[in-house]
Amino acid sequence: MANTILVGAQWGDEGKGKIIDFLTEKADVVVRSQGGNNAGHTVIVGGTKYVLHLIPSGILRPGKTCVIGNGVVIDPVAVAGEIDGLEKQGIAVTHDNLIISDCAHLVLPYHRAIDEQRELKKGKNKIGTTKRGIGPAYGDKAARVGLRMRDLCQPELFSQKLADRIEENNALLQTFGAPPLVFEEVRDACLVAGERLTPFIENTVVYLHNCLKQGRELLFEGAQGTFLDIDHGTYPYVTSSNTTAGGACTGTGVPPHRMDNVIGVMKAYTTRVGEGPFPTENAEISDMLHGMGREFGATTGRARRCGWFDAVATRYAGMVNGIDELAVTNLDGLDTLASIKICTHYTLDGKSVDVPPTDLAQLTQCVPVYEEVPGWQTPTENARKWKELPPNAQSYLERLAELTDARLSIVSVGPNREQTIVL
Ligand code: IMP
Ligand code: MG
Fold it and tell me: What is the mean predicted confidence (pLDDT) over 287-312?
């Protein structure tokens, strides 16, 4: 298995949580490197549904260690709640299976409040964020005014720093006409969470390097997807971290030459939640998937926007991430269709385009060009081997891999752990 980076090749929600859970069987340590509780993974094991936001889904496998790296932004109250929730579901969470970076930045209530106010102010131009405070938290990190997990372990120092930050942010909130935060309330909630979290906090860079020395295999769990990357995505309709493969290095302190393999996860179609360009968006496929009860967000419950598979996007994702292998999920979502469209390229002002324009206005004007292939109109949810898939489904998957220019290695035909085909 070696050291593997798993990334989303589309706009997030590709089903990474399920693939991570599956791959964790072979890994020793599962590591998050970016994002925060804007992410949401739904994993179903033995009929029980687990929804995770910050803690890697590897936590569901006994004997595995999960690491939340320095590049993640952590809402301390949220992560403490997630630990408690898991324990209620019978999953023990201790320092043996969860380690949190002392350098990870905190998401605090003023980040959430400002996220919300900025979105309100933008009106119809809003980004459609998860309102979890992710953008303002990374903003503070870059501006060097953030508070980190290690501060939480020092209540006195934390309180002083927090008081300064609340003063500044209350002034900002006032300009939005929003109510100020009460320092004591924020401090008390954080310190309670801090006490709960202190046993998990350490220098995860050193921990991970010790794992490497011992030959333990690392699996890097990407959150969100390539086109939500702050640098490579459809800016400004992106999240605020590097969701692409490079983020796994900076967000954990594990150097590039120790990474062996990049797996790109993509749906057999495309979805996106929140605003921003989406060339292959299609109302019919949206209605069909929503009608099946599929494609509602794990974090916000929002209905996701749906569209046909976009090979222009996934090919670009292949480049940016260096995708070696592909995991295609949600194949079963297309089971009922008589014919399926695949976007092979776009046209822009009459010219053929095979990489997504970085200019947002141009991307919005791109017209997808489709090839149409026959569907299989057979349930695939019970397939466990490649040869159990209908021939048209096999051809469809082979075509997606060919267009993306990577090797197909995993196909998922349902949310359960067993509904996974390995090639
Ligand atoms: P933020 O990350 O909450 O700032 O949201 C920025 C954009 O990223 C919005 O379009 C969100 O819907 C999207 N986003 C953030 N996290 C996820 C995710 O885990 N899956 C899918 N979309 C996400
Ligand atoms: Mg998700």
Answer: 92
Average pLDDT over residues 35-49: 88
Neighbours of 250 (CB within 10 A): 16
Positive or negative, the CA dihedral 204, 20, 27, 80 is: positive
Q: How does 140-160 read in b/e, with b if 16+ C-beta sit within 10 Å?
A: bbeeeebbbbbbbbeeeebbe
Cβ(53) – ligand 1 distance below 6 Å: no
Q: Is the CB of 12 under 6 A from ligand 1?
A: yes
pLDDT of residue 224: 96
Question: Nearest ligand, CA of residue 127?
Answer: 1
Catalytic residue among 21, 41, 115, 335: 41
Residue in 204, 150, 247 with CA at minimum distance from that of residue 29: 204
> Is residue 30 very low, low, confident or very high in pLDDT (cuts 50, 70, 90)?
very high
134 pocket-lining for ligand 1 (C-beta < 6 Å): yes
> Contact at 8 Å (CB) between 381 and 342?
no
Of 48-62, 96-110, 201-215, 224-238, the poorest mean pLDDT is in 48-62
Strands 65-68 vs 98-101: parallel, antiparallel or unpaired: parallel
| Cis status, amide bond into 236, omega within 30 of 0 | yes
pTM: 0.96
* Ligand that lies nearest to the alpha carbon of residue 51, given by its number in the listed order: 2
- Take residue 176 and report the two structure tokens written for it: 């939005």
Residue 1 has pLDDT above 70, yes or no: no
pLDDT at 297: 83
Ligand 1 center from residue 224 Cα (angstroms): 7
